[in-house]
Amino acid sequence: MNALPEPSAPLAHRLSPWRIPWAIEANAPAAFAVSIAAAVAAFVVLSVLPPAIGTSVTFLLLVPSVLVGAALGGLWPGLVATAFGVIASIALGSRAPGIGGIVETGLFAALGVGIALVGDRLFRTDATARAFNETILQREAHLQSILDTVPDAMVVIDAKGIVQSFSAAASRLFRRAPADMIGRNVSCLMPAPYRDAHDGYIERYLKTGEKRVIGQGRIAVGERADGSTFPMELSVGEVRVHHSHYFTGFVRDLTERQATHARLQELQSELVHTSRITAMGELASALAHELNQPLSAITNYLRGAERLLEGPEPDVERLRDPVSKAAAQALRAGDVIRRLRDFVATGENERHVESLSKVIEESLALALVGVKSSDVRVQKERGYAADLVFADKVQIQQVLLNLIRNAFEAMAGAPRRELTISTHTGDNGEALVRVADTGPGIGPALAERLFEPFMTTKRTGMGVGLSICRTIIDAHGGRIWIEDTPGGGATFAFTIPAGVSDES
Amino acid sequence: MSPDWIVHIVDDDDAIRDSLAFMLESSGHRVRAYPSADHFLEQTDAPEHGWIVTDVRMPGKSGLDLLRTLRARGLTLPVILMTGHGDVPLAVEAMKAGAIDFLEKPFDAGRLLAALKTSRESLTLGDERAAEKVETARRIATLSGREMDVLEGLFAGHANKAIAFDLGISARTVEIYRANVMTKMKASSLSELVRMVVVSRT
Predict the structure, then answer these.
(1) Which of A186, A239, A434, B199 keeps 20 to 30 A from B159, CA to CA?
(2) To which H or E segment does residue A248 belong?
């Protein structure tokens, strides 16, 4: 359908200035005809006019035929028209002879050649422009066809964040018509914390040149027209045309691609890992069942043994087997508990130097899945300048995810719903993260017991989330505690060791 | 104990079967154990006497399925269900389906032995059910509105915390109401309470 446009060589060829245009153009015959017709018309008019009019008018009337010839057909028709004019003037010259006539004829001839050359240039520039235009249209159609078929959504914005182009896939993904989006600020495609900050991101980049998304890609959250959010992978490229800056964002919907994409599988496995805290509820129930089995068996063996001992002459041999079996069951119970511990701490050491802001960003993206952005205002404050931490990224995400979800739940009925995630530098240079909500807060009596296992205030909670958070933070050599949010609400704070970059 | 009465233990867990058999035997009962409901149904041709002590949660047929199968076959053997943690709603369902008791693991031997004894006596006493019905209704009538709410919550198989949440009161308060209910109903365990309510409503 859309053939590739001609390679650009012929264009350059056409453009070369003042090439001697010996070649006769394809539409020359028509140009010859028109220019000669114009000249003949002029000739006829002149022959009708009284001779007193003079030679200047003769040439004035003949000039258009040269112009027309040159403009329509290039050099040759222009020259032919000039020649015709000269002949005509000589023919008419019999009516007004004299030196003046010959000089004027010469001037006309020279002028004619000049006009032919200029006209030719004009003719060619016009042809080039038209060819250019056509190529551009062709390319645009071609580009459009690519954009329409590329599965990733594509959004082009300018340096002010104003949408310049919005692909068909983007339209499907964000459920917004391109016509509605073009001319609007791109920030309406993202939920609250990003929405307000996006202009600042661009500004900061333009000022500092520090790339945070450009060329790297990251996981972010998108918002559809109806306010629902979805996780997405965003890659941004930039284009500079003269002094204008454009950014092209490619957006991949992570919710839709789960089954197929390799990156997704990776993310999914992280998600599975991260959603363990939710799975803990089910696990705890299964675990209680598993623990109850050996405990029941122990009780039964020992109660049975007790009954035998109550008899007049207890058969000690009969007791040996159940007692040793009871001991074995006690060990079985210990195994169950060991399994729980292994489940919580993944065992393998997966600690690396990680970017704290990125860890927070991604946890937030995961936590925001399915949350209407209008429900909660999310703010981020970055006060930990070093940014690097030494941590198991997935485990810290687990902690953050749990704290963020808790905060969302706590604020469900609150009049003011603001989540603030801030980073700070701790007293010993470690990273300190605060997750602050504006919910009802936690009383001092509860605050002390909150990190204990099976302590919960929720109807369906198992009370394991925060105790796992503490296990993880402890394992990282950090601390986790609770504070009051100034103005009301609860703040969970934890520390993790600073990361030293790999090179040093 | 009468030698013709056998305790049929159905549990998929080897240790539970073995330990339960040991405990019951040392208490003078005759015991047979089966690793699944199907094993029991296949190997026993219509046992007329005896009890069934079965786990609720098992691979294949659950304890509840076993109970229903027996009732469908017209067998009225007393069935005692053993449940793990969090199976309370299921156990309540079992009581409504006709189980005589449910025991939450781990339970004390005395509880099971008492349940076996009572069920056997109540079978021989015949009309006791009707009398019990009247007595239960009388006791229920003494409950206050809030106590009644808590009783309904327990009967629906809800945990204290869930009941507290639904009624908008603290879990501690529910515990107090629950204790009152148990005292007024003269029930020594949740299962007994549920059984009483089931009987009074049939």
Answers:
(1) B199
(2) strand A244-253
